[in-house]
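TL;DR need structure tokens for one chain.
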Amino acid sequence: MRPENYQAKSQPPSNEYELNFGPNHPGIEGNYAFKVKLNGDEVLEARADAGYLHRGFEKLMEGRLWIQNIALVPRICVPDPVPMEVCYSLAIEEIGGLEVPERAQWIRVMHLEMSRLAAHLFAFGGHAATTGMYTPMFWGVADRDLVLDRFEELTGGRVYSIYNIPGGVRRDIPDGFLERLSSLLDYLESRLPDYDNLFFTNQVFVKRARDVGKMTQEQALKWGVTGPNLRATGLAFDVRRDDPYLVYDRIEFDIPTEPGGDALSRNLVRRAELKQSIHILRQVIDRLPSIKGPIRCPIPNPLAWNVPAGEAYTRVESSKGELAYYVVSTGGDKPYRVHVRGPSSMHAVQVLENLAVGCRLEDIAQIMFSLDACPPEVDR
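>> reply
TL;DR here they are.
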């Protein structure tokens, strides 16, 4: 019972409240919790919490053989797993002094760009769904599935290919594969006007995405932004061009940029990158038949392979941005230390938390998907 002298204290009216945005929602590729404090429908504070998906990859890798980790690393970014395999393999090759045959390098470039196509198609559809447009989402998933068909033919797996291994690739391309890949590229390029009409120039999307989640080039550099998100602020930085690996220095391609720094610009950059990936793949298709030789260099028994002591830092340009591996070997059959520098570590935490403040509730999912992050990269 209340005491007799109890007097209720009047509270000033307030529209402030907290909301858990996730961990299941259409704003990001995977289960991801985003906790926001709102005043009405305006975000006052935001905090990311990625602890709801695959976790602890770096520690797991220390307890597995070098070759076993090839099956583990693709799960760090499911929509774009191939760069994980390639970057990890590049680090082991640098430490072990392995020279990857030229044919294997061209095949790796082909595999990487196919993965970029699949990842961007997935991102287009996901962002469209955040604005209530589900037809582009269905189109993106269906067209991505056609790329996965070629993954399955090349590697035996539709999502996790486990194809790029230290020293090269597991097997050569099947007979007729390049012709089927070329036909797929023709189809995807013919679809771009449809995507433009339905999504990229659709005023529902344009008006919803313009000036949403906007950041300047200075902010992007300060926050560690890379990839399409950085190029959407006007800076033409791409690891494939600025720090070439494999045979990218022998391939002609442009680096698309947009000046706006908003959700619209980030999507337009990815749309242009999809066309550039098609251009790169056509060059690979033209060159690969004339490049003969082995698809991998000899390595010791992978189940008893003691990689020489040393360390390496390697990086590649994934569809999400700059991906890097720092790998340390003490001469044993397992890594001593592996650190993954995934672009989503920046994009899905400090960038998202900063861009969300001041936006409206209905724009949170748009900002999240425009940054195109992979949650397991954060909680790796």
